[in-house]
Specification:
Radius of gyration: 19 Å
Shape: globular
Helix content: 25-40%
CATH topology of the largest domain: Rossmann fold
CATH architecture of the largest domain: 3-Layer(aba) Sandwich
Largest sheet: 6 strands, mixed
Order of helices and strands: EEEHEEHHHEHEHEEH
Bound molecules: adenosine-5'-triphosphate, magnesium ion
Number of helices: 7
CATH superfamily of the largest domain: P-loop containing nucleotide triphosphate hydrolases
Mean pLDDT: 91
Number of strands: 9
Low-confidence stretches: 259-267
Strand order of the largest sheet: 5-6-7-3-8-9
Structural class: alpha/beta
Number of domains: 2
Distance between the termini: 23 Å
Strand content: 15-25%
């Protein structure tokens, strides 16, 4: 598989505070990279760089070999919560992306808009169904939905653009454990079906192990230094035994806490 994301010697400084330094990371198409690290270590910053919402102070971010100046439809983004337009229905939230891309914000009077809108709505219903939502949810507003349902809509909103890369930043951390585990299964299925490259930030290590084909941990060499990749580890494909999950959780947990460890994965 080709390299779809390359971070080359990235440094990010915010008003004299170095957050990231010497960060190199290459991600191949179709990987599911779970990103862990202590709070404030720069995980969301890294995601914003990949999204194109922010530029690094030094170094380059290459998407499919090119530096891209701003976000576009090829990179989807799902944050922890509040990503839906509160004043739009579920259906309008999902169709907003494709409508805006094709017609712009003021092109809705153009001929063909109504026909295309019907087509986008038909697609939106398909995504809703796929996310486990009902057609009757389509006309609800976000505040009428539970947190889990809102995140399903946010994922549908991202997926309808058929992004090559989907960035999720602690997207499940506001959900109750049952909903969270359902959402993990859903995302894993979507990853397998679509072949989309995922970057998924989480503080929950079992979640990283369940979802990821690879785990990357950002952290500092010492309290004074800035963050870079501390651990980069491929994970086995399928169903881990309980012992294995516990072992991996310990290894990753220790590394996240800043310990320097030699990591090996025993087959
Ligand atoms: N726009 C900004 N201006 C100034 N400082 C910022 C800005 N964005 C982030 N920071 C700082 O950069 C550091 C990294 O922030 P970031 O949000 O990337 O961390 P994180 O790993 O996502 O943390 P968390 O796990 O709490 O979400 C933090 O110290 C934060 O305060
Ligand atoms: Mg963050």
């Amino acid at each position: 598989m080709k390299d779809i994301i390359r971070l080359e010697n990235i440094g990010v400084t915010y008003s004299n505070k170095k957050v990231l330094e010497h960060l190199d990371l290459t991600i191949r198409e179709g990987e599911f990279v779970a990103v862990c690290g202590q709070t404030g270590c720069g995980k969301s910053t890294m995601l914003r760089l990949i999204l194109g919402a922010e530029k690094p102070t030094t170094g380059r971010v290459l998407i499919d070999g090119r530096e891209l100046p701003r976000p576009d439809r090829h990179r989807g983004y799902v944050p922890q919560k509040y990503s839906l337009f509160p004043d739009k229905t579920v259906l309008d939230n999902i169709t907003f992306g494709p409508e805006t891309e094709e017609f712009g914000l003021i092109g809705r009077l153009k001929p063909g808009f109504r026909r295309r809108r019907k087509e986008f709505q038909a697609q939106a219903y398909e995504y809703l169904k796929h996310m486990g939502l009902q057609a009757s949810d389509a006309h609800k507003y976000p505040d009428e939905l539970s947190g889990g349902m809102q995140q399903r809509v946010a994922i549908a909103q991202a997926l309808i653009m058929k992004p090559q890369i989907l960035l999720m930043d602690e997207a499940f951390s506001a959900l109750d454990p049952g909903t969270r585990s359902e959402m993990q299964k859903l995302v894993r299925t979507l990853w397998k079906e679509t072949g989309t490259t995922f970057l998924f930030v989480t503080h929950n290590i079992p979640e990283a192990i369940f979802l990821g084909s690879r785990v990357v941990i950002l952290g500092k060499d010492s309290p004074e230094s800035s963050s870079k990749v501390q651990v980069d580890m491929e994970l086995p494909e399928e169903a881990h035994s309980r012992e294995e999950v516990e072992r991996l959780t310990r290894v990753i947990g220790n590394a996240t806490a800043g310990a320097k460890l030699e990591l090996t994965y025993a087959e």
